[in-house]
Amino acid sequence: MAKRKVSASLPDYRFAAAPTSLQPGASPKSAAPTVTFDLSRFDPGARPFSSGDKATDKARVAELAVELDKLQDLFYADRRFKLLVVLQGTDTSGKDGTIRDVFGEMSALGVRTAAWKAPSDDELAHDYLWRIHEKVPANGEVVIFNRSHYEDVLVPVVQGRITKEQRAQRFAQINDFERLLTETGTTVLKFFLNISKDVQRERLQERLDDPSKHWKFQVGDLAARKSWDAYQAAYGAAIAATGTPWAPWMVVPADSKTQRNLMVAMAVKEALLRLKLRYPPGDPSLSKIKVT
Q1: What angle do CA 71, 75, 77 make, to 5 degrees?
Q2: Residue 108 lies in domain
Q3: Residue 1 covered by a domain
Q4: How many domains does the chain have?
Q5: pLDDT, tens digit, for every residue of 151-173?
Q6: CA–CA distance from 1 to each of 52, 252, 263 (Å)?
Q7: Is residue 284 part of a domain?
Q8: Residues 178-229: tens digit of each pLDDT
Q9: DSSP one-letter code for 88
């Protein structure tokens, strides 16, 4: 099968036009998004980077995973940078699968995953970013967030537990938090795994039909599904307010698992190459040592 020419580029799916963050002492209302983001214009079923052949695309994902392993080895040795990968999306959008297929070849020595659930009582006794800051990467480390601090501007909004003013204030705080990370050596990659409502229904049903997948199913998934439109609006507002030049969002069409993995792998590789990684200088005296 002839390969289809790919005309799309990763910047087509990035959003980095969020307003500046709230200044100290300003009204939270002033942090309301001054730009809009229409999530509906992104087709979850699109395959912009596909060759047109699924087997070819899967092979390319596997190749990219090996390339990322080599880059991560260099990243770990370099120790000048940190990498935070945020995977955000609705239930069944493929966060676990992305971690497995894109990052699975990397050495566990320098890669860590944090999966975020509902906050504990101790976490609730602190500000909502307290538990997040503890898990960000150290020098030379890659950390992948399965869900993230963005849950605190999604779930409470849909459930009506915070006001619009409080949400706007949190958007500003998140922007400042991510700017702090980037200004201290962290590259922040944020991916919204964009699936359609129909595909979510299929994947939830698969979990119900297969006893070996029952552990993945939560009754709360159905309750959240009833608020699909509200969550889509909340995601759109969050992207509009927090897609900054220092921490842009990338909207990943995720109805196709292979397309999803391909796009995330391409973006991570691009980010690592942009850092111009290098091995630390060797000790000249070591060249004179002979192992006997």
Answers
A1: 120
A2: 13-278
A3: no
A4: 1
A5: 999 999 999 999 999 999 999 99
A6: 8, 26, 21
A7: no
A8: 999 999 999 999 999 999 999 999 999 999 999 999 998 888 888 899 999 9
A9: E
